[in-house]
């Protein structure tokens, strides 16, 4: 099932003959300013509904969608494992600390609050079902609201089954003398590659368990979810290293093993195991996940949850998550008081 | 030009309405093709089950491949001829007893101009009954003699799938991608229309001279110009032998009025080498007719 047809053909570049009309400039294309002029009023409105979550060394991690004027927001859980160590950028000058309220692994969403802020412009999600149909225009803010993009519903709504987590290493089946498992190969852009594992490293410990057989690595990983952090102890020559590896969806690793990722900007860590998704063709990047999805009238439809491949982005419909999230916000705003006897 | 203007919300709504009206009629004609080591797409264009796909999907004439219909049912098809120089290919469904769902092919290749809204359908990554066919809506970015570039994003498995205009006619067949999101290439209808009979009779076109269409051997200026005036005549070319001269203005080709350089070039390329054409030209005040037998693209220009 390896989808390599198009890529294989790149070898057969044909010389371009004389052109007819001048090609479209980037401004004239589907997501150029000429076309986006049609949704100009939405652009201004949507700008303030999102904020960027900033990690270590000011590195952007994910997009947050405001869901309360008092700083409640939603973002993608598997992209933000250490959310309270991160900050949220309120404006060019202001950042705020983050308080995590609830992490919903099934939905891959996390509800949190920016500490000490007010006057946010929230998206008003609703629990009542919204119909979407093939070909319906949709819009999302991108780059934390600096841009807005459009696209269409491009496939049927459906459940995306989970295929488990993976780390992205191929291992030598022969045990290493003195214990450990030798790494034979590493998938490009995989959790192992991102964490800094290299070919010929000897894996000594995984999640606190000493390793002697390669099958144990698969067993330990399989019990976990994409997005989880796992500690790996390994030996490189005489040097001993301890690395934190953030697991990804197994389907992501398999698809990307050859490094032939034409997704532009990469794909998300977790790309499966969702109760229901809307698939669309808005040109977003993994960093835009967590941003809202709306129709062209500005009605919220859902939240972008996974960039899957070059043609696929998934969003969770609002009716799937809002009925679970809204009570959590209410409960957090009005914590139950102990009854006096 | 529509492409110079900014779009309005009503424009987008109109596109959506057209796409949603067309989709139920287009979907049944779009198929997934299993090639043995991979998966691709194609589109049925007559009730006998003739399929347009890409040459790198068909690979060679006479291969029997599994074809998956929109409803998931499976049938078998045989690869016919292909044009390796442009990536165009034909297939024939084996079951001739059925009336197959099909779509129309656009015969006005020149009209697929930059700015035109278009619809891409296909089965990226393979047939998935829960997902269904994958729709992308975008615009033509560029037209060349044999191909179209659009911002309808494609990937592996889309190969051979159809690109439609908003009249629901096939204007391209998905062929190749570059890494850039807006770099999605489709074979235009020109190579199909030009070599239809050869491809139907299972011939393989390998040489640019044939694949790229008829060749006159004149320079006629910028493609946007409305007046087609000969600026240069190549020695020993078809144009040279017919007596065409610098300064001649070409007014019609086979009785059809010539309206622009682009239209004229396109009309020439649509005809295979060896075709005899009649040009009406104006030389100073005098109008005359000249017969030319189209040649092939000279060797030094070959890919």
Key features?
heterodimer; A: 341 residues; alpha+beta; 7-stranded antiparallel sheet; 6-stranded antiparallel beta barrel; 33% strand; disordered N terminus; B: 303 residues; 17% helix; 35% strand
Radius of gyration of chain B: 21 Å
State mean pLDDT of chain A (0 to 100 scale): 88
Q: Counting H and I runs of at least 4 residues, what is the number of helices of chain A?
A: 7
- Protein chain pair with the most extensive contact, residues per chain: A-B, 58 and 79 residues
Widest sheet, order of strands of chain B: 1-2-3-6-5-4
Structural class by helix and strand composition of chain A: alpha+beta
Shape of chain B: globular
Which H/E pattern describes the elements of chain A?
HHHEEEEEEEEEEEEHEEHEEEHEEEEH
What integer is the average pLDDT of chain B?
A: 90
Overall strand count of chain A: 21
Give the SSE order of chain B as H and E letters: HEEEHEEEEEEEEEEHHEHEEHEEHEE
Number of strands of chain B: 20
Shape of chain A: globular
Rg of chain A is 22 Å
Largest sheet of chain B: 6 strands, antiparallel, barrel
**What is the distance, rounded to the nearest whole angstrom, between the alpha carbons of the first and last residues of chain B?**
33 Å
- Please give the largest β-sheet of chain A: 7 strands, antiparallel
SS content category of chain B: alpha+beta
Description:
The complex is a heterodimer of chains A (341) and B (303). Chain A is an alpha+beta fold. Chain A contains seven helices and 21 strands. A seven-stranded antiparallel β-sheet of chain A has the order 8-7-19-20-21-18-9. Chain A has a six-stranded antiparallel β-barrel with strand order 1-2-3-6-5-4. The longest helix of chain A is centred in the C-terminal third of the chain and has 16 residues, at 318-333. Chain B is of the alpha+beta class. Helix content of chain B is 17%, strand content 35%. In chain B, strands 1-2-3-6-5-4 form a six-stranded antiparallel beta barrel. Chain B has a six-stranded antiparallel β-barrel with strand order 8-9-10-13-12-11. In chain B, strands 18-17-19-20 form a four-stranded antiparallel β-sheet. At the A-B interface, α1, α2 and β8 of A face α1, β9, β12 and α7 of B.
